[in-house]
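Q: I'm writing up a methods section and want to include an example of the input and output format. Could you take the sequence below and give the corresponding predicted structure tokens, formatted cleanly so I can copy it straight into the document?
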Amino acid sequence: MLYFLKRLYSFLPKSSLYILKYIPNFILFGMHYKPWMQKISCDKGLFADELLKILAYSREFTQYGKDHIPKNINLDNVFSTLEALPIVSSHDLATNLEYYTSTEFNKFNSYTTTTGGTGRNPTTILLSNDLYGIEWAH
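A: Here is the clean output for your methods example:
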């Protein structure tokens, strides 16, 4: 059913998509959607902790992070730091992937792949070998 709805979505004029709000979530997203909704937290404190970890990692292991994330990042300024980061486009990634890639990854523990190309041009990205099975599962 989900496959059918995705195909239908791609052919419908965007002005007709209001009908989707009347289709139950379990039909659109699958039977396991609702139980996972209960597990998702929107606690801003949790977001701040996780975002701080991500930005600190980026600062330590990517040139982009070193150039744009301040050394004094903390829970008080984590959201403003994120908002101040320059937007990265698929063109930026395609022309300078190494700038955004963690120095922890190399040809022995990662592999290159491309996005689905929904923006008309597939973008080359680097994924950890640990994600190989997850990528194929989708």
